[in-house]
């Protein structure tokens, strides 16, 4: 159902049961799949790919041109998965030549005034609380939660099931399953409450805690800690995910309590 006071470019591909409220503008080269609701005063620009059963609240601007001086008009896209909620005045830029796309996964919640810059990849079931600002080229993995008014530096990676406290300045990578807080941002333990809510066993949670004791509490550098973890702890999905994340970190991971 499209309101007569909205503008939809004739080349946009809109599923039949999409609801578009008044005063919304949808440009060409846009795809919106079935069941999605688009509120009033939303602007959806070229290159948007929006999945099923999403809710996009008033004032959001999606697939805008990247705020990157190197951008030269190349054709890129912005993807949003299914069942994702985009609240008021969220802004999401499309990609640049780096990845050619910005991706928001399925079942995510981006609260009011969140900004996600070009070439970011946000996984499934993520929550970005009010006014979170994510710079370009960042990766935020599944089930991560970023507290309100946090600012994430470009090229930062945040691991799955991580929780970042509100008002944080995220300059380093945040490993999976951890909680992060203080200034400068540092390790505050593992996200045990979130892991239990998502069905992780006590054995898995204890194993994750033990891995991070090597990394953060035994006074070793990361390379030495990882070498010992590989020797002294049996392989598991969680252990291997942490090893992979730390090994692939280009910016370096956040520090511990006293470092």
Layout of strands and helices, then pairs:
Elements: E1 7-8, E2 13-14, E3 19-20, E4 25-26, E5 31-32, E6 37-38, E7 43-44, E8 48-50, E9 55-56, E10 61-64, E11 77-80, E12 85-86, E13 91-93, E14 101-104, E15 109-110, E16 115-116, E17 121-122, E18 127-128, E19 133-134, E20 139-140, E21 145-146, E22 151-152, E23 157-158, E24 163-164, E25 169-170, E26 178-181, E27 186-190, H1 192-197, H2 202-217, H3 222-232, H4 237-247
Parallel strand pairs: 1-4, 2-5, 3-6, 4-7, 5-8, 6-9, 7-10, 8-11, 9-12, 10-13, 11-14, 12-15, 13-16, 14-17, 15-18, 16-19, 17-20, 18-21, 19-22, 20-23, 21-24, 22-25, 24-26
Antiparallel strand pairs: 26-27
Helix pairs in contact: 2-3, 3-4
Description of the molecule:
By secondary structure, the chain is of the alpha/beta class. It is built from 4 helices and 27 strands. It has 2 domains: 131 residues, Hexapeptide repeat proteins (UDP N-Acetylglucosamine Acyltransferase, domain 1, 3 Solenoid); 53 residues, Up-down Bundle (Udp N-acetylglucosamine O-acyltransferase, Domain 2), CATH 1.20.1180. It has a 10-stranded mixed beta sheet. It has a 9-stranded parallel beta sheet with strand order 1-4-7-10-13-16-19-22-25, with no helix packed on it. A hairpin with a 4-residue loop joins strand 26 and strand 27. The relative contact order is 0.08.
